[in-house]
Amino acid sequence: MKKIKKLLLVLLTLSGFSPPSFILAQEPDSTISLEQNSDTTYLPSRGNHVFTSISSVDDPFVSTKFYLGFGIAEIVETEIPITIGEYSKTIKFEPDIFYSTGGIEFQYAIRNWAAVNIKAYGLARLGNNFLSLASEGVSAASVYSIGWLFRIAENEDLMFSGSIALQTTDLTFIDLLAQTDTTITPIDTLIGRQVVTDYQSLTTQADLRFAVRFSDVFGLLTKLSGGFGEVYAAENRSQFQYNFGFALSVDLRNWIHIPFGLGLGGTIISNDWRFNDAKPPVFTGNINIAFYNRNDFTLGIENYVQIIEPQQYEQTLNIMYSRIYISYYF
Fold first, then answer.
1. pTM of the model
2. Cα–Cα distance between 177 and 183 in angstroms, integer?
3. E strands of 76-131, at which residues?
């Protein structure tokens, strides 16, 4: 009888302690598996919604990421009047202008609430014939920026951040015409004229960024930016500059079950470094399609139209941009 009691006591002891130790060994593995299978771990997201933004509307997420992008652009068909001084005759033509752009960005999250951001990008503009060169000239620009991004508030549906940055810009404009002249004159009259103009600008910028998830399919991103520095105009004076943009984000994975995101929106910019004589403001309409092949990488193609009104012409120029980019989050 005593042996039976001892055996029962041993069985009860084993049943009381062995199963819990087995469960504890299994629970951490299952948790890790769920985290690794999540497809929104590194991408800018709230809940199951991955945000897709547009140019000039930076997302507010404090993360470590690398960005690389390239693009081209051209002027949509329009007519510009040019006066031929030797014959006192004005003609209209369609400028053939080619643009090439490129940029790189690296952001490093030093804390879960703060990140340092470094950007470098540029643009080159060239006319494909003499009239295009005479009317629009040649321009090249390089822009460098370093700043900080700080998280202000967040919950399961929104992210709100602010940033401050210092930006330096080098611009070169080659204009065959005088600053306010739209007359093509003999080549000897170009002697003594300032054909090449260089600008150097140092600007301090601060902005507020906001992202909100309405559902697993729809979200919204906004950015309001302000800064003080030199504008790219003939007088090259310092003044306040602003930039506002928004983007409606559509996560197609949660709608029609394909690994794409869609960004639709626009921006208003007080001054654009692509032109030295643009009247403010400059309007842009954007559409961006991004492909997500895993939880840390995106490949996107964006098209947008920029509406610019040069000061020396009455016509409005519509410029169509196309860019391709990759973003890697880690």
1. 0.77
2. 7
3. 80-84, 89-93, 97-111, 114-127
Count other Cβ atoms within 10 Å, centred on residue 251: 25
CA distance 205 to 146: 10
pLDDT digits (tens, 9 = 90+) for 279-320: 778 899 999 999 987 789 999 999 999 888 776 666 777 888
pLDDT tens digits for range 68-118: 999 998 877 666 655 555 544 555 555 567 778 899 999 999 999 999 999
Give 278's DSSP letter. Answer: B
What range does the domain containing 23 cover?
A: 1-31
Task: Answer yes or no: do 5 and 84 share one domain.
Answer: no
Return d(Cα 199, Cα 232) in angstroms, integer.
Answer: 7
Residue 110 lies in a domain: yes
CB 52 within 8 A of CB 286: no
Rg of the Cα trace of the chain? 28
Domain count along the chain: 2
